[in-house]
Amino acid sequence: MNPKHGKPRARPHLRSRACSIAGVGSYVPTKVLANADLEKMVDTSDEWITTRTGIKERRISAKDEFTSDMAAKAARRAMKMAGVTGEQIDLIIVATITPDMPFPATACLVQQKIGARHAAAFDLEAACSGFIYGLEIGRQFVASRACETVLVIGAEKLSSITDWKDRNTCVLFGDGAGAAILRSDGAARGILTTVMGADGSKAGLLHMPGGGSRCPATMDSVGARLHYLRMEGSETFKNAVQAMCSAAKEALRRCNLDITQIHCVIPHQANRRIIDAVASRIGATPGQMFVNLDRYGNTSAASVAIALDEAVASGRIQRGDLVLLIVFGAGLTWGAAVLQW
Ligand code: UT7
After folding, report:
1. Are 196 and 83 within one domain?
2. Are 111 and 119 within 8 A, CB to CB?
3. Is 236 touching ligand 1 by the criterion CB < 6 Å?
4. How far is the centre of ligand 1, averaged over its atoms, from the C-alpha of 168 (Å)?
5. Do 38 and 183 belong to one domain?
6. Residue 267 C-alpha to ligand 1 middle, in angstroms?
7. 178 lies in a domain?
8. Which of 179, 188, 250, 255 is most deeply buried (CB count within 10 A of its CB)?
9. pTM score, two decimals?
10. Distance (Å, rounded) from C-alpha 8 to C-alpha 11?
């Protein structure tokens, strides 16, 4: 991609090609924050958190461990699985709402950490839907032959924007990263279709008021706790179920597939009740659903990326299996993707 380094560009070609996921990887911090720990911080209980969300514990990164560090660790694991070196990567896309800093892009920091000196790098912000948005952007670059190898990462240090005094939100989120290497291996399998959507009229349901051009950091904004995320939980819940179901159905329709043909459904890990409601409305059995939110909580853009890696590593997904990813997040944004592994 970068002519400065003298690497030849992939030759443009009119015919598009399929895009496979050649490797996946994930990383979560070692520190565990259990529901019992939260009972000592806010007025909550393990019983409330478990029954209302399904979450038992989440991972919290160290003070000196940032989004780019977790992203790079997940990326190295995906690169290892794909047999790809940093030098071979043409493009890095990092989906995150918790970049190391407003700029430069966390993707540039990752580029340096993994030695991907030929790669272009940028961040994308689609909140919890970011990994599917990233997969689709990466797929377009591979399909059009503009790139040979694309690294897509979902990574978050949500603990840095969590209000640890707000019991409505602080029990929900965790830190982590997941990554995928996209390439064409000549086979027709890979990312079969992707659906993406957004509705900015509901931006206020889930947002962080401070820190942008509308409300830069001041003593007042910090005092008013505007630099933490805020969510209207039950409205977000309803929108999540509705949007995830219609995105999933549309993705299946585009592939001419029935839900019974899907081996593994990986939904955004926000709330067990959302996952169960989506499963029942799209006709998926509990056995088809992959769930790990009991261990990690909601890791936003990293959520389905970590889950995909765990599903592959544990053998839940085998070569040739059909996989349905479904996401939903702030924006509002949503999406779904059908993969053939
Ligand atoms: O990743 C992006 C997408 N995110 C989501 O989709 C999350 C969507 N929302 C949710 O998962 C749920 O709405 C929550 C888990 C956030 C909340 O569950 P809920 O069943 O919608 O509860 P609620 O907000 O209606 O609150 C019910 C009660 C309230 O008390 P009152 O007003 O009825 O007395 C809350 O104050 O539960 C109370 N409550 C808590 N109690 C103990 C809220 N948080 C807690 C807590 N511990 N941590």
Report:
1. no
2. yes
3. yes
4. 6
5. yes
6. 20
7. yes
8. 179
9. 0.95
10. 8
Dihedral over Cα of 198, 200, 206, 210: its sign? positive
Q: Which of 155, 187, 219 is where one domain is finished?
A: 187
Q: Which of 147, 170, 264, 268 is an active site residue?
A: 268
In a domain, 173, yes or no: yes
The answer to whether residues 200 and 170 belong to one domain is: no
117 lines ligand 1 (CB under 6 A): no
* 119 and 262, same domain (yes or no): no
The CA distances from residue 284 to 10, 191, 265, 281, 291, in Å, are 41, 20, 8, 8, 13
Residue 8 lies in a domain: no
Which uninterrupted H or E stretch holds 294?
helix 293-296
- For tokens 């992959």, the residue is 290
Cα angle for residues 56, 325, 200 (degrees, 5° grid)? 90
Last residue of a domain, one of 164, 187, 210: 187
How far, in Å, from the CA of 53 to the mean position of ligand 1?
8
Mark whether 255 is an active-site residue: no
